[in-house]
Amino acid sequence: RTLPELYKLGVAKLAALDRMAEKSAQNLVDALDKSKRTTLARFLFGLGIRHVGEATAKDLARHFGTLDGVMDASVEQLLEVPDVGPVVAQSLHTFFQQPHNREVAEQLRAVGVHWEEGEPAPRALLPLVGKTFVLTGTFPTLKRDEAKDMLEAAGAKVAGSVSKKTDYVVAGEEAGSKLDKARELGIAVLDEAGMLALLTG
Asked: Long-range CB contacts (< 8 A, 24+ apart) of 39-44?
């Protein structure tokens, strides 16, 4: 009935099932035993948390380093993970707030599912963690995707539209309505040089 119970089955119990020969039962037990050694990213992905795909699971594992770190994280802490937005953060937080889900994770660890854990990513090295940027217009030297990659590598989030939660709008030539909205909301506006200055600290 539950995933951890699979790991407690032996060859005799499996072989007693309909259409399950002893050889098939042994193969399944061997495969289950092999699957106990995994990675934190694979384990998180395997839990089937809504909106958490393989890439997000890898980001979470890299950022927190341990399962307990992910399970105990607040929504705000989850939002610090690159590419984790409000929907994914809320989904993760809700999942691990449910006692049943935490229990399944603990039971899987108890039956021997294991992985190497590491240190959380050093946040001090990411100068723009927690900051949200919106890019608009054409920049003198950088393509939009290059600027986005640089900001995300520094821990920032890059959003598609301007809102009260936006910290900076980086505006190039022909910036248009996003720049107007930033001025209307009193959000700091940077040019490419200003953005690069922030990145280099």
From this structure: 39/115, 39/116, 40/65, 40/66, 40/67, 40/115, 40/116, 40/117, 42/115, 43/67, 43/108, 43/113, 43/115, 44/70
Backbone angles phi, psi at 44, to 5 degrees: -60, -45
d(CA 149, CA 133): 12
Q: Return the axis-axis angle of helices 99-110 and 86-97, rounded to nearest 10°.
A: 70
Residues 112-167: tens digit of each pLDDT: 999 999 888 666 567 787 789 999 999 999 999 999 989 987 878 899 999 999 99
Is 0.85 topped by the overall pTM?
no
Residue 188, SS3 per DSSP:
strand
What is the spatial distance between Cα 39 and Cα 58, in angstroms, rounded to a whole number?
9
Assess contact for 128 and 151: CB atoms under 8 A. yes
Spatial contact of 138 and 179, defined as CB atoms under 8 Å apart = no
Strand 132-136 with 168-171, pairing: parallel
Summarised one tens digit per residue, pLDDT across range 28-78 is: 999 999 999 999 999 999 999 999 999 899 889 989 999 999 999 999 899
